[in-house]
Amino acid sequence: MKEMKFFNIKRKQTEVSLAPVTYREIKEILSDDSNFGISVSEADVNNLRKGFDNDFIVGYIARNPENESDKWFVWYEFAEANYELEEKTKDLTFSEALDYIKQGKRVARRGWNGRNMFIFLVPGSTFKVNRPPLLGIYEEGTEVSYHAHIDMKTAQGDIVPWLASQTDLLAEDWEVVEK
Predict the structure, then answer these.
(1) Is there a contact between 25 and 39 (Cβ–Cβ < 8 Å)?
(2) Does 82 share its domain with 99?
(3) Is the pTM of this model over 0.70?
(4) pLDDT tens, position by position, 31-70
(5) What is the Cα–Cα distance from 133 to 35, expressed in whole angstroms?
(6) pLDDT reported for residue 36
(7) Which domain, by its residues, includes 65?
(8) What is the total count of domains within the chain?
Protein backbone atom coordinates (compact mmCIF):
# COMPACT_ATOMS: atom_id res chain seq x y z
CA MET A 1 0.00 0.00 0.00
CA LYS A 2 1.28 3.47 -0.86
CA GLU A 3 1.85 5.93 1.99
CA MET A 4 -0.93 8.42 2.60
CA LYS A 5 0.36 11.86 1.73
CA PHE A 6 -1.47 15.12 1.32
CA PHE A 7 -0.33 17.68 -1.24
CA ASN A 8 -0.72 21.31 -2.17
CA ILE A 9 -0.62 22.17 -5.87
CA LYS A 10 -1.20 25.33 -7.87
CA ARG A 11 -3.97 25.46 -10.48
CA LYS A 12 -4.78 28.73 -12.20
CA GLN A 13 -3.11 30.61 -9.34
CA THR A 14 -5.43 28.95 -6.83
CA GLU A 15 -4.03 26.67 -4.17
CA VAL A 16 -5.62 23.24 -4.30
CA SER A 17 -5.57 20.54 -1.66
CA LEU A 18 -5.15 16.92 -2.78
CA ALA A 19 -6.38 14.21 -0.41
CA PRO A 20 -5.59 10.56 -1.20
CA VAL A 21 -8.43 8.26 -2.19
CA THR A 22 -8.33 4.48 -1.84
CA TYR A 23 -9.92 1.94 -4.15
CA ARG A 24 -12.65 1.36 -1.52
CA GLU A 25 -13.47 5.10 -1.47
CA ILE A 26 -13.47 5.46 -5.25
CA LYS A 27 -15.94 2.55 -5.48
CA GLU A 28 -18.22 4.45 -3.07
CA ILE A 29 -17.84 7.67 -5.07
CA LEU A 30 -18.60 5.86 -8.34
CA SER A 31 -21.74 4.30 -6.85
CA ASP A 32 -22.92 7.70 -5.57
CA ASP A 33 -25.34 9.67 -7.75
CA SER A 34 -23.49 12.95 -7.21
CA ASN A 35 -20.67 12.98 -9.76
CA PHE A 36 -18.26 15.85 -9.15
CA GLY A 37 -15.97 15.77 -12.13
CA ILE A 38 -15.02 12.11 -12.03
CA SER A 39 -14.75 10.54 -15.44
CA VAL A 40 -13.95 6.86 -15.16
CA SER A 41 -14.45 4.27 -17.87
CA GLU A 42 -15.56 0.69 -17.15
CA ALA A 43 -12.09 -0.40 -18.33
CA ASP A 44 -10.50 1.82 -15.69
CA VAL A 45 -12.71 0.30 -13.00
CA ASN A 46 -11.89 -3.22 -14.20
CA ASN A 47 -8.17 -2.40 -14.18
CA LEU A 48 -8.51 -1.15 -10.63
CA ARG A 49 -9.98 -4.48 -9.57
CA LYS A 50 -6.90 -6.38 -10.78
CA GLY A 51 -4.35 -6.67 -8.02
CA PHE A 52 -5.49 -3.77 -5.83
CA ASP A 53 -6.75 -4.31 -2.34
CA ASN A 54 -9.46 -1.99 -1.07
CA ASP A 55 -6.99 0.25 0.76
CA PHE A 56 -4.69 0.86 -2.23
CA ILE A 57 -4.45 4.56 -3.08
CA VAL A 58 -5.64 5.12 -6.64
CA GLY A 59 -5.82 8.88 -6.79
CA TYR A 60 -6.69 12.12 -5.07
CA ILE A 61 -9.76 14.21 -4.47
CA ALA A 62 -8.74 17.77 -5.26
CA ARG A 63 -10.53 20.60 -3.46
CA ASN A 64 -10.45 24.33 -4.04
CA PRO A 65 -10.43 25.92 -0.55
CA GLU A 66 -11.98 29.10 -1.96
CA ASN A 67 -14.99 27.19 -3.34
CA GLU A 68 -15.93 23.94 -1.55
CA SER A 69 -18.15 22.82 -4.44
CA ASP A 70 -15.14 22.95 -6.77
CA LYS A 71 -13.68 19.46 -6.37
CA TRP A 72 -12.54 16.79 -8.78
CA PHE A 73 -10.79 13.43 -8.96
CA VAL A 74 -7.18 13.04 -10.13
CA TRP A 75 -5.69 9.60 -10.89
CA TYR A 76 -2.53 8.90 -8.86
CA GLU A 77 -0.30 8.36 -11.90
CA PHE A 78 -1.63 11.52 -13.60
CA ALA A 79 -1.00 13.62 -10.48
CA GLU A 80 2.52 12.23 -10.06
CA ALA A 81 3.36 12.85 -13.74
CA ASN A 82 1.65 16.20 -14.38
CA TYR A 83 1.68 18.22 -11.18
CA GLU A 84 4.50 19.65 -9.19
CA LEU A 85 3.46 18.22 -5.85
CA GLU A 86 4.59 19.74 -2.60
CA GLU A 87 3.82 17.47 0.34
CA LYS A 88 1.39 19.11 2.73
CA THR A 89 2.84 18.84 6.25
CA LYS A 90 1.34 21.98 7.83
CA ASP A 91 -2.20 23.27 8.34
CA LEU A 92 -3.52 19.71 8.42
CA THR A 93 -6.94 18.63 9.60
CA PHE A 94 -7.03 16.02 12.35
CA SER A 95 -7.97 13.36 9.75
CA GLU A 96 -4.88 14.18 7.72
CA ALA A 97 -2.73 14.25 10.87
CA LEU A 98 -4.13 10.86 11.92
CA ASP A 99 -3.12 9.34 8.58
CA TYR A 100 0.44 10.57 9.17
CA ILE A 101 0.38 9.18 12.74
CA LYS A 102 -0.61 5.76 11.34
CA GLN A 103 2.49 5.92 9.12
CA GLY A 104 4.69 6.37 12.18
CA LYS A 105 5.11 10.14 11.90
CA ARG A 106 4.92 12.56 14.83
CA VAL A 107 2.39 15.41 14.72
CA ALA A 108 1.61 18.44 16.85
CA ARG A 109 -0.72 21.40 16.93
CA ARG A 110 0.86 24.72 16.09
CA GLY A 111 -1.04 26.32 18.98
CA TRP A 112 0.27 24.01 21.72
CA ASN A 113 2.07 26.00 24.40
CA GLY A 114 4.78 23.50 25.31
CA ARG A 115 8.03 23.25 23.44
CA ASN A 116 8.82 19.95 21.64
CA MET A 117 5.37 18.47 22.37
CA PHE A 118 4.02 15.96 19.87
CA ILE A 119 1.80 12.89 19.61
CA PHE A 120 2.72 9.54 18.09
CA LEU A 121 1.42 6.01 17.57
CA VAL A 122 2.37 3.26 19.98
CA PRO A 123 1.87 0.06 17.97
CA GLY A 124 0.02 -2.84 19.51
CA SER A 125 2.01 -5.77 20.90
CA THR A 126 1.82 -8.72 23.24
CA PHE A 127 3.88 -9.32 26.36
CA LYS A 128 4.00 -11.63 29.37
CA VAL A 129 2.88 -10.18 32.69
CA ASN A 130 5.83 -9.87 35.09
CA ARG A 131 5.18 -6.83 37.35
CA PRO A 132 2.46 -4.81 39.12
CA PRO A 133 -0.11 -3.53 38.52
CA LEU A 134 -0.91 -6.29 36.03
CA LEU A 135 0.31 -8.98 38.48
CA GLY A 136 -2.68 -8.08 40.62
CA ILE A 137 -5.00 -8.72 37.68
CA TYR A 138 -3.32 -11.62 35.81
CA GLU A 139 -1.10 -14.49 36.85
CA GLU A 140 2.62 -14.07 36.16
CA GLY A 141 3.51 -15.22 32.64
CA THR A 142 0.02 -14.59 31.22
CA GLU A 143 0.30 -13.23 27.69
CA VAL A 144 -1.55 -9.93 27.36
CA SER A 145 -2.45 -7.99 24.21
CA TYR A 146 -1.42 -4.36 24.40
CA HIS A 147 -3.65 -2.42 22.00
CA ALA A 148 -2.26 0.28 19.70
CA HIS A 149 -2.87 3.80 21.01
CA ILE A 150 -1.64 7.39 20.76
CA ASP A 151 0.77 8.85 23.33
CA MET A 152 2.09 12.38 23.79
CA LYS A 153 5.58 13.62 24.58
CA THR A 154 5.01 16.50 26.98
CA ALA A 155 7.00 19.72 27.30
CA GLN A 156 8.65 18.18 30.39
CA GLY A 157 9.80 15.16 28.36
CA ASP A 158 7.31 12.69 29.88
CA ILE A 159 5.28 10.25 27.80
CA VAL A 160 1.57 10.16 28.64
CA PRO A 161 -1.55 8.62 27.09
CA TRP A 162 -3.27 11.17 24.84
CA LEU A 163 -6.95 11.71 24.10
CA ALA A 164 -8.14 14.27 21.54
CA SER A 165 -10.36 17.11 22.72
CA GLN A 166 -13.21 18.51 20.62
CA THR A 167 -10.96 21.44 19.78
CA ASP A 168 -8.16 19.09 18.65
CA LEU A 169 -10.56 17.15 16.41
CA LEU A 170 -11.82 20.28 14.66
CA ALA A 171 -8.50 22.13 14.45
CA GLU A 172 -6.75 22.72 11.13
CA ASP A 173 -3.35 23.68 12.55
CA TRP A 174 -1.81 20.20 12.81
CA GLU A 175 1.67 19.73 11.39
CA VAL A 176 4.16 16.91 10.92
CA VAL A 177 7.08 17.11 13.36
CA GLU A 178 10.42 16.00 12.00
CA LYS A 179 12.39 13.48 14.08
Answers:
(1) no
(2) no
(3) no
(4) 554 544 444 445 555 555 554 555 566 677 776 667 666 6
(5) 55
(6) 46
(7) 7-87
(8) 2
Q: Based on the fold, state whether residues 117 and 166 are members of the same structural domain.
A: yes
DSSP for 134-146, please give it: GGGTS-TT-EEEE
What pairs with residue 63 in β-bridges?
A: 17, 71
Q: Judge if 74 and 116 occupy the same domain.
A: no
Element (H, E) at 49: helix 42-49
Whether residues 133 and 156 share a domain: the answer is yes
Burial class (CB in 10 A: 0-12, 13-18, 19+), 83: middle
> Is 12 in contact with 65 (CB distance < 8 Å)?
no
Q: Are residues 39 and 24 in the same domain?
A: yes
Neighbours of 154 (CB within 10 A): 14
Report the pLDDT averaged over residues 93-116: 89
Phi/psi zone of residue 24: left (φ > 0), alpha (ψ -120 to 50 degrees), beta? alpha
More confident residue, 132 or 22: 132
